Request: fold
Amino acid sequence: MHSILFGPEAELRRAIGEEQPRIEVLDAPVGIGNDEEPARAVRAKPESSIVQAAKALADGRADAVVTPGSTGAALAAGLFHVKRLPGVHRPAVAVLLPVPGRATLFLDAGANVEVRPEQLVQFAHMGAAFGEGVLGLARPSVGLLSVGEERGKGTPQVAAAHAALLESGLNFVGNVEGGDVVGGEVDVVVTDGFTGNVTLKAIEGTVRTVGGALRDAVYSGTLSKIGGLLLRPKLRRLRDEMDPETVGGAYLLGLRGLVVICHGSSSRRAIARGIELAERGVAQRVVEKTAEALASQAGESASDRAAEPSPSSVNADTVRARP
Reply:
């Protein structure tokens, strides 16, 4: 596998050491921070790493992009250079949650802080298309994240999206609550990027806290240490399944090229997992299969065919995805 690294060339070459035949280093002397307005920064900084990477993906020099930088900048660069799949309004950060025993696709996890009801409906279509085309699920079940299971619960946007999803032709099971996200009973969970990002970080924090509590309990006494030794293989597998760094990243679903979003504080292990996720996505034809499934869905509403907004409408999202 040939890799291209975009960033300050001198720093990157010092970091990787000796010349690596399978690693190409391209100078990207400036970056785009989380406090910058994404669309404006992408226009003003064509030499930035995310813009150069997006252009490489668009012109076929790269098969996928992996970035731990600003999610807003990645979204804006994707909209300007990689472009949307036909009919898609806004891409969404889609993460396969580490639910033991099965995968649950959760979107949006941070790309769109505020969304309209029709965009939530389209997230559901994209998620279902991913489930069908990539995960091989027959009519994936779709749930809408809300504060209660009842039809009228939630914000006006959620209530309107609920009504539209009932007529969408998808296998919509209704509202799901926060506790159901990792319950493993729904294939796709849909929400806005603000709620999704907060939910994802809460899940990650819970995993870390519970893991630490189990570790402390195991080492609290002689008998518990013996029990811990017996349970260690199973606990290690559970830890690996639930560890966010094992997941590595999330797909920016809805673009014509494969983009994987990693957290800005990702470790080397998490970045490596993100690259592996991108490699699997290319091999599994994630973009192509999602596009094919979207095109074949007969339940697309008239609102989903509305004119696409300009990339310049990308908000200066302060929420970062943490897949």
The chain has eleven helices and ten strands. The chain has a mean pLDDT of 82. The two ends are 24 Å apart (CA to CA).
